[in-house]
Write a structure and sequence with these properties.
47% of the residues lie in helices and 11% in strands. It is an alpha+beta fold. A hairpin with a 3-residue loop joins strand 2 and strand 3. The longest helix has 21 residues.
């Protein structure tokens, strides 16, 4: 046992690299994307480097997102543009719509960003990540999660102080032509004022750490989030595993 431990310790750096590679390869499952369901999308900068350096960069990405979402029939329900990554909450209407939209935005934005800043090469950390959400259980929570991202990052003290998110649209301080509210949002109040107030209160109440972690993990690993019936329905529509778990046949119980 002692010899094995020494051998493993001596090989740790190489083993760690191999393990990281294998973990990365295993994590690259086919993207789980189904039309007419909300998707939480995350796109990061390469090595977590900044993807926005000035207000004009944010504005350019916002413009491209608006153009490409309309072109590919993807409803953008919520978003937040952070210095080194982006969160979106969207519903595509076709199986390939989300990928085409993100490709169109990504390529056009990088060309402009590189030209403005005298650089070349990639800007993104590989492909974008996404998860499927059950609207009734996670849509409003995901909206609040995105609005509160700048607060969690200590960029601002409250969500309404961050200019580059959909929060101010939903609390009635700004009309954002990019945003298409999900039908579920209309159910939180009978009037625009009631909906704005209810949503502001929801964000002010914050999210528990378990919900924050669940939304983060699902998006980064490509899982679906929802109740058992929702997950079973999603699984029936795809051959790809939709939740975290061990593949293969379940163990047989022994007495």
């Amino acid at each position: 046992m002692y010899a094995v431990v020494l051998h493993r310790r001596r090989m740790a750096p190489a083993s760690r690299k191999i393990g990281d590679t294998l973990q990365h390869a295993m994590a690259r499952l086919p993207r789980l994307s189904l039309p007419e369901l909300p998707h939480h999308v995350v796109q990061r900068g390469h090595n977590r480097q900044p993807i926005f350096l000035e207000p004009g960069d944010y504005a350019d990405f916002h413009r491209l997102l608006h153009e490409q979402s309309r072109q590919h029939a993807v409803a953008v329900h919520a978003y937040v543009l952070m210095p080194n990554h982006v969160h979106l909450l969207v519903t595509p209407t076709r199986p390939d719509a989300l990928g085409r939209m993100m490709q169109g935005v990504g390529r056009s934005y990088v060309r402009g960003f590189n030209a403005r800043n005298g650089r070349s090469g990639t800007l993104w950390e590989g492909r974008f990540r996404s998860s499927l959400l059950q609207p009734e259980t996670h849509l409003l929570a995901c909206m609040a999660y995105q609005d509160l991202n700048p607060v969690r990052a200590a960029l601002v003290e409250e969500a309404s102080a961050w200019e580059w998110s959909s929060h101010r649209h939903y609390i009635g301080r700004h009309v954002d032509r990019l945003v298409t509210p999900h039908p579920l949002f209309w159910q939180i109040g009978n009037t625009p004022f009631a909906r704005e107030h209810a949503y502001a209160q929801l964000v002010a109440a914050g999210l528990g750490p378990a919900m924050v972690q669940a939304l983060t993990d699902a998006a980064l690993h490509g899982w679906a989030l929802g109740d058992a019936a929702f997950l079973a329905d999603v699984q029936a529509r795809t051959q790809r595993r939709v939740i975290r778990g061990n593949p293969g046949r379940p163990r047989t119980k022994t007495s």
